[in-house]
Amino acid sequence: MMIENIKMPQLGESVTEGTISTWLVKVGDRVNKYDPLAEVMTDKVNAEVPSSFSGVIKELIAGEGETLAVGEIICTIEVEGASGEVAATTIEEKPVEKAAPVAPAQTPVAAAPVQTIAKTDESGKVRFSPAVLRLAQENNLDLSLIPGTGNNGRVTRKDVLNAIANGVPQAAPVPVAVEAPAQPAVAQTAPAAQVAKAPASAPAPVFPTAVGDIEIPVTGVRKAIASNMLRSKHEAPHAWMMIEVDVTNLVNYRNSLKDSFKKKEGFSLTFFAFFVKAVAQALKEYPMINSMWAGDKIIQKKDINLSIAVATDDALFVPVIKNADEKTIKGIAREITELATKVRTGKLKSDEMQGGTFTVNNTGSFGSVQSAGIINYPQAAILQIESIVKRPAVVNGMIGVRDMVNLCLSLDHRVLDGFICGKFLGRVKEILENTTKENTNVY
């Protein structure tokens, strides 16, 4: 028999890790190729991981709630093939290694009980997943001080996030040579026992619960959203702009069509469809807005694929309208309806959330009149369409009641500047204010 590995798949563009939500199998179960093994959550999608082989489940390496990087092993399957001795060598997958900390020989310290924190190989080295090691390095944490809750005491990403939230000693500083008068330079180091006792920062406050308080567990989807939003805010320097638009003509035109359109087409002609079409047209005229930061270069995308934010009770999804500039208002309205229905019925596929180049968020549906969205990484901007409200405005020197809306743009200042964004917003405003029966065709 041979042991084969099932690895964490990449379930979307820019997705680097996934969280095991629920195992659908247990050790000893016989599965066929393509049978679902587990439900996995990312910041973009919930999906089932299918088996690549037929055989018997040998080991569930990742536990429920554990987050693993793309390519890490989640379980192993015993299939017909080579001998067990050969198969056993295929299980170990070259995880990132980190030498177990060793106290300096010249600094004796009292022995203390040691808690196993991660799997070790034959050489005695402690093994960590790439995602765990990267997160610890980004936060300057010493993994040897973090108790592991994974298999065989392995430190999981959840363990590291808990350590960040509750406080843990940071990695020991590099020894520095200090000169003293009339004495040779001496490397000043703190004893290992002292380093282990001195946290680098105060723990986050823990609020006691009172009668009537409700503790709500953070789901994998919520954690994934939090991780992606945190990455966007940390990496992209956000700037913000707003423009006011008089959409009285658009409102009158849409209201004159909505009943007959619904009866004829079977779905609603929403205001949002007009806004999405206007944004797509403006992006074609100002393609720099349709760009992404890529480290040493900026990538200006050819296709205009608009991500639209769709919320459920406990999650936020961003399905994509592909080639939105080539679609009519009717076509966009149909796609918005179909994608929103798939999100709310759990039928949205991962490929329907890939390839987005710019995000349009209909925050006005919640009654919001002004907001600053967090950019959908790695895109360069997100546009919030706020609520349409009636306000007094000056038109041709006279005050009248008009339908007004605010358009709020958050932008990545590494990619975009106020000048180009102002011109883009001005063009969207022009298109919307000139949306009338005479010059706009929804078909």
Mind describing the biggest β-sheet?
A: 7 strands, mixed
Strand count: 23
Percentage of residues in DSSP E strands: 25-35%
- CA-to-CA gap between the ends? 61 Å
- What is the helix tally? 9
Radius of gyration: 28 Å
Question: Would you mind describing this structure in some detail?
Answer:
By secondary structure, this protein is of the alpha+beta class. It folds into 3 domains: 2-88, OB fold (Dihydrolipoamide Acetyltransferase, E2P) (Beta Barrel); 119-171, E3-binding domain (Dihydrolipoamide Transferase, Irregular); 238-433, Chloramphenicol Acetyltransferase. The chain is 25% helix and 25% strand. It contains 9 helices and 23 strands. The strands form 7 sheets. Strands 13, 16, 19, 20, 21, 22 and 23 form a 7-stranded mixed beta sheet that branches. It has a 4-stranded antiparallel beta sheet with strand order 1-8-6-3. A hairpin with a 4-residue loop joins strand 17 (310-311) and strand 18. The chain is elongated, with a radius of gyration of 28 Å. The N and C termini lie far apart (61 Å). Mean pLDDT is 81; it is low at 82-125 and 172-202.
